[in-house]
Amino acid sequence: MNKTDLVNNISEKSGLAKKDVEAVLNGVLGEITEALAQGDKVQLIGFGTFETRKRSGRSGRNPQTGTPIEIPESTVPAFKAGNKLKEAVN
Q1: Which of 21, 44, 63, 87 minimizes the number of CB atoms within 10 Å of its CB?
Q2: For 52-89, how does the pLDDT look when each residue is reduced to its tens digit (9 = 90+)?
Q3: Is the pTM of this model over 0.90?
Q4: Alpha-carbon distance 18 to 22, whole Å?
């Protein structure tokens, strides 16, 4: 399912216009992105938690030349599923 499919499904189930659903969805995703960029955690009880994690620096290899390179430390987004979501999937 992609974003367009999600908007269409929500629109059909809620009776709201696709334009309104897309505006709300973009707003939610924007707020989650903004919170993660500031280092905050976003918890949606029953669904899951969006957070950032530090990935430590490490050494790797250039796949074309095989020369060793240093990969710097980085911050990456992460999602941990909540219990209700885990139960729904299983």
Answers
A1: 63
A2: 999 999 999 999 999 999 999 999 999 999 999 999 99
A3: no
A4: 6
